[in-house]
Prior knowledge:
Layout: E1 2-6, H1 11-18, H2 23-32, E2 35-39, E3 42-47, H3 49-69, H4 74-85, E4 96-97, E5 104-105, H5 110-121, E6 124-128, H6 135-148, E7 154-159, H7 175-193, H8 196-204, E8 208-212, E9 224-228, H9 236-243, E10 251-256, H10 270-278, E11 284-288, H11 298-308, H12 311-319
Parallel strand pairs: 6-10, 6-11, 7-8, 7-9, 9-10
Antiparallel strand pairs: 1-3, 2-3, 4-5
Helix pairs in contact: 2-4, 3-4, 5-6, 6-7, 9-10
Amino acid sequence: MTEATIQQVDARRALSLFGARDQHLRTIREALGVSITHRDGEIRVTGEEEAVTRATAALTQLGAQLDAQGRIDVDHVADVLARVTGKITGPVTAPVEVIHAARRVTPRTQGQARYIQSIREHDITFAVGPAGTGKTYLAVAVAVEALKQHQMRKIVLVRPAVEAGESLGFLPGDLHAKINPYLRPLLDALHEMIDYDQMKRYMEQDVIEVIPLAYMRGRTLNESFIILDEAQNTTVAQMKMFLTRMGQGSKIVISGDTTQIDLPRPSASGLIDAVARLRDISGVNIVQLHKSDIVRHRLVQEIVRAYEEEPKAALNRKSR
């Protein structure tokens, strides 16, 4: 048997970690087969060595979640357990049916499953997480599914045209040509899900719009599936403007990576501000995706991890 200790945990923090009536604590105990107690400002974890290591990691990650968002729910616990055990747990989310012949999009991680479920169940979903977690791709897939099933009459894909180390003024062509590179990732996702000819017809008929954020001002969009990509690069005023475009029967998905903000300083990110302001409003849900949800090339997870480290720490690790 092995015992590990997490220090300096006050009673209120322990209550939040363990959940109402210890529901989170029971879930971790049953999933990992460990004993967990809290006494004198310490959480003690006892059990087999590997199980203790995983349980300690789970509690540490949940503590970080508590610090970041001020709360922990059953989905957070399931997601953390999936990461520390390497297993996908919890309810299975139905595949997303898209228009492209016989094509289906299936979540590949617990976080992605929660994301799809949130989009289906809430009018506004915020997705925050690193590159490669499927934030844009999955949102577009659910939007196309809603269009196919006549739940929505229009898809509007939106991106802020913020310069990421490059100047729009030096790009060739007219305004449309200058903005097109910013909208390309959204178009790429659409092309994977809708046949080219049908995609062309939809855009000609204004059923699908792919537009810069500035073009949203003054509009009201009813029965529309609206996706804002790269939302970390909106200002607070732009985010408010975007959110208030929502009309009757519409659904909004807002995605972004708060580690890749390209706004000029000292501008505050509208994504960070909105998540803090709107988290307690009914009908709004916030999904946090993690490195474990990255589904691009296997090296992307390692790259994200390396950039999260302090440069000196990464250099020291390499020199060992």
